[in-house]
């Protein structure tokens, strides 16, 4: 029915032109740093509240356990949707990744918060925020976030818990991250140098330290000395004062104690007691260690399987899985990117969308929407809904393209996402081209208010994905969300 409706809506004047584009050059994207966020919200608290109330029934219908997952290469805008939904949920949980995930959210007054470890539900005073066992936690960094929130009146104490099974990320992991990246020379992964990969490596080799270990200072000190000795044996330039770090963590141990919990028991008991649980995915499916563009991936599993492992929640308990996708695409770091743009169009989209990394501050690579990648993410995760974000960034584009297939080096056209990196780097993208709407949609709050060409673009994405684009982002504020009827 969705496909039939979409086809009826597409007029003959909207029929796309289809062509292949050669793969982009390997030259790096450069752009001047944009100082001001041109997408800063200007809605009043009253307007935000009114729109939230209008959609309350929708948010309440999403089921008791809902996962919000990135479907591209990260930075899709997951934090905003989580922030909206958190008002309707009793538990908001992080399940994987670490401080390499940057989530930007806004409060009712338009104030901006950039979070890295603290779950985005922290602005909802009625929600318990959970950092699950699958997250790697840098405790000093986490407390920096907690202290910054406290200064603006947001108190995490009593409203946030961290799994005793979560592995700890130390400054030595950050040092190792930089040394490894330097060794790779021209084949760099593009790591954020936050120590995420080395921390997960410690976990995989079974010599990592978990948060619960901090309660036994003798065991903790011994484990940290072993980690430091291993790193010193591996890297000639490794510099790390392990004894100073041990002393530092004695104070941290006392402060973290009220936050430590058996979160596996907590979330499952909450589910058993009828509580609603919202899971905030970090990074994205195309960066998944198993399913992403390996080796240009993160070191955890942002796909739905990683959500289950990272919280200890069984797959059958998830009723709703929302895939978050930008109306175009971005990527930070190295790796194949078939629909990547360069030049004036890329610079224009980057400036309009303020596409600079929350964690790194680096200019993001820019590309058209890639339906081959999005459908691949849906194949793995089984999305029940799509949240199409930043549609307003396309307001000034006279022409908009969607990548619908790849032409392989042997001439074959496919809609399957290749696993081989060398193949991905050589594909030609088959595009459909659509006229833009050339009008400001940032104040639209209902489907009927959107321009016809914007509707047709959304319907075409929905048709290609075979999943409803239920939620459409038209700006950064909480209220800037259109719920499609």
Please outline the helices and strands.
Blueprint: H1 2-9, E1 17-21, H2 45-54, H3 56-60, E2 65-70, H4 78-85, E3 91-94, E4 103-106, E5 112-115, E6 128-131, E7 136-137, H5 139-151, E8 160-163, E9 167-168, H6 171-184, H7 196-204, H8 217-234, H9 242-256, E10 260-261, H10 263-272, E11 277-280, H11 304-311, E12 320-326, E13 329-331, E14 340-341, H12 344-353, E15 365-367, E16 369-370, H13 371-381, E17 385-389, E18 399-407, E19 413-414, H14 421-424, E20 428-435, H15 452-465, E21 471-473, E22 481-483
Parallel strand pairs: 2-11, 2-12, 3-6, 3-11, 6-8, 7-9, 8-10, 12-17, 16-18, 17-21
Antiparallel strand pairs: 1-20, 4-5, 13-15, 14-15, 18-19, 18-20, 21-22
Helix pairs in contact: 1-15, 6-7, 8-9
Biased composition (Low complexity): 16-34
Pfam families: Adenylsucc_synt
Region (Disordered): 16-44
The total count of helices amounts to 15
Could you give me the name of the CATH homologous superfamily of the largest domain? Adenylosuccinate Synthetase, subunit A, domain 3
Q: How are the strands ordered across the major sheet?
A: 10-8-6-3-11-2-12-17-21-22
What's the level 1 CATH class of the largest domain? Alpha Beta
**Helix fraction?**
25-40%
Mean pLDDT, rounded to whole units?
A: 88
**Through-space gap between termini:** 14 Å
Q: Using only CA atoms, what is the Rg?
A: 22 Å
InterPro entries: Adenylosuccin_syn_GTP-bd, Adenylosuccin_syn_Lys_AS, Adenylosuccinate_synth_dom1, Adenylosuccinate_synth_dom2, Adenylosuccinate_synth_dom3, Adenylosuccinate_synthetase, P-loop_NTPase
Family: Belongs to the adenylosuccinate synthetase family.
Pfam families: Adenylsucc_synt
GO molecular function, one term: GTP binding
